[in-house]
């Protein structure tokens, strides 16, 4: 996608051939800052601190983290150490494990002296694949948006509701939930996006709104509790969200609050779609509620809010009384029965084991 007219990805390799560069997403929308990652510790910190975030980008960053680790120690022990360090950064998005398994599978059979070059090449391939996958998700999702448009009166806009940021900032480029939106907008569809602010970290208000705005896509940021009201009044044609992990039976784990939107969508007959690349499928588990580890994050994300003051300073203020207990679950699980369809790079699938296994047989066999 473009930032100030310049094609930009969320992560890339610098011209020195080994430094990895990433957009610091903690500073958006206030400042656009690119951070060099030169060590595997820096890559791990970037994931843990949410300098980078979003399931596919976490995977790509971990892949580059392994490449950086191979520069530090390309032995088997070095590979094991890199895996252990990177896998411990965040628990919920399965793309992290997928990318680390992929990297280790490619590097382990090689002699140590061949591992640095091979690791950078494999990480670059993971990043490129992510871009191609998202473009394909966009093509399949576009048909759903076009169908929604066809059901409306001429000139009426198609209203999509999304939660969190499953946009290009959450991937290497294009996004998952946003790829169909960008393709529809570029094709001239009259589209408008309701953007859930997504407390506590405000990925919707800070990131999704920022990137939609840069692309010129009409959008409105709404407090998280607004979606049900909009659906009751016919103001949402379809929901499209991303996901951090989809089970073999189609349960969907995504940013906290997604489940409530899916319930409201079901109660109001609004289609609820989930966009995902195949590395987000975890074929080893079925029951998302029981089996997916839900990250619990720092209370400060709930108690404090950061923003720009009217005179231009960036400040953090406390919005919760001192002494109140705080809970900060990062994700929730939407059962497959509430999901209308899974928008993947191989088509729109029913959220069930048979459909997922038929579309991605190589993933089932690999596990
Ligand atoms: O905690 P985050 O910001 O990493 O959570 C991100 C999400 O929940 C996204 O919706 C999900 O990773 C899908 S990204 C294409």
From TrEMBL:
Domain of life of the source: Bacteria
Entry keywords, A to Z: Amino-acid biosynthesis, Cytoplasm, Isomerase, Methionine biosynthesis
SUPFAM superfamilies per record: NagB/RpiA/CoA transferase-like
Enzyme Commission number(s) from the entry: 5.3.1.23
Reaction catalysed by this enzyme: 5-(methylsulfanyl)-alpha-D-ribose 1-phosphate = 5-(methylsulfanyl)-D-ribulose 1-phosphate
Record's keyword annotation contains Isomerase: yes
Family matches, as InterPro entries: IF-2B-related, IF-M1Pi, IF_2B-like_C, Initiation_fac_2B_a/b/d, M1Pi_N, NagB/RpiA_transferase-like
GO-annotated molecular function: S-methyl-5-thioribose-1-phosphate isomerase activity
Name of this protein: Methylthioribose-1-phosphate isomerase
Binding positions for substrate per the UniProt entry: 53-55, 90, 203, 254-255
Pathway(s) where this gene product acts: Amino-acid biosynthesis; L-methionine biosynthesis via salvage pathway; L-methionine from S-methyl-5-thio-alpha-D-ribose 1-phosphate: step 1/6
Gene Ontology BP term (one): L-methionine salvage from methylthioadenosine
Similarity comment: family membership: Belongs to the EIF-2B alpha/beta/delta subunits family. MtnA subfamily.
Cytoplasm keyword on record: yes
Gene3D superfamilies named in the record: translation initiation factor eif-2b, domain 1, Translation initiation factor eif-2b, domain 2
A Pfam family of this chain: IF-2B
Biological role: Catalyzes the interconversion of methylthioribose-1-phosphate (MTR-1-P) into methylthioribulose-1-phosphate (MTRu-1-P).
Site (Transition state stabilizer): 164
Catalytic residue positions: 244
């Amino acid at each position: 996608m473009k930032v100030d007219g310049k094609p930009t990805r969320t992560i890339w390799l610098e011209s020195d051939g080994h430094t990895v560069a990433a957009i610091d997403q903690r500073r958006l929308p206030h400042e656009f800052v690119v951070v060099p990652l030169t060590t595997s510790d820096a890559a791990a910190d970037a994931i843990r601190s949410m300098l980078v975030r979003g399931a596919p980008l976490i995977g790509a960053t971990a892949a580059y983290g392994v490449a950086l680790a191979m520069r530090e120690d390309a032995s088997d022990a070095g590979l094991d150490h890199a895996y252990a360090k990177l896998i411990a950064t965040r628990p919920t998005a399965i793309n992290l494990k997928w990318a680390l398994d992929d990297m280790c599978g490619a590097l382990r059979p090689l002699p140590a002296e061949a591992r640095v070059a091979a690791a950078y090449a494999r990480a670059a391939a993971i990043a490129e694949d992510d871009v191609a996958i998202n473009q394909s998700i966009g093509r399949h999702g576009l048909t759903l948006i076009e169908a929604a448009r066809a059901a409306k009166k001429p000139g009426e806009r198609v209203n999509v509701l999304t939660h969190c940021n499953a946009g290009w900032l959450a991937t290497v480029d294009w996004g998952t939930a946003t790829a169909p939106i960008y393709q529809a907008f570029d094709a001239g569809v009259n589209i408008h996006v309701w953007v859930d602010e997504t407390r506590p970290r405000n990925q919707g208000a800070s990131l999704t709104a920022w990137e939609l705005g840069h692309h010129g896509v009409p959008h409105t940021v709404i407090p998280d509790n607004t979606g049900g009201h909009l659906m009751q009044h016919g103001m949402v044609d379809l929901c499209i969200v991303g996901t951090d992990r989809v089970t073999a039976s189609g349960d969907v784990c995504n940013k906290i609050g997604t489940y409530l939107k899916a319930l409201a969508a079901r109660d109001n007959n609004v289609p609820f779609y989930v966009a995902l690349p195949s590395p987000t499928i975890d074929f080893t588990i079925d029951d998302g509620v029981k089996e997916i580890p839900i990250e619990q994050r720092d209370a400060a994300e709930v108690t404090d809010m950061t923003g720009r003051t009217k005179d231009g300073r960036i400040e953090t203020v406390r919005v919760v009384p001192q002494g109140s207990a705080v809970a900060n679950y990062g994700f929730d699980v939407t059962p497959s029965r509430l999901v209308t369809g899974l928008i993947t790079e191989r088509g729109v699938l029913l959220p069930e084991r048979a459909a997922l296994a038929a579309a991605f047989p190589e993933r089932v066999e690999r596990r």
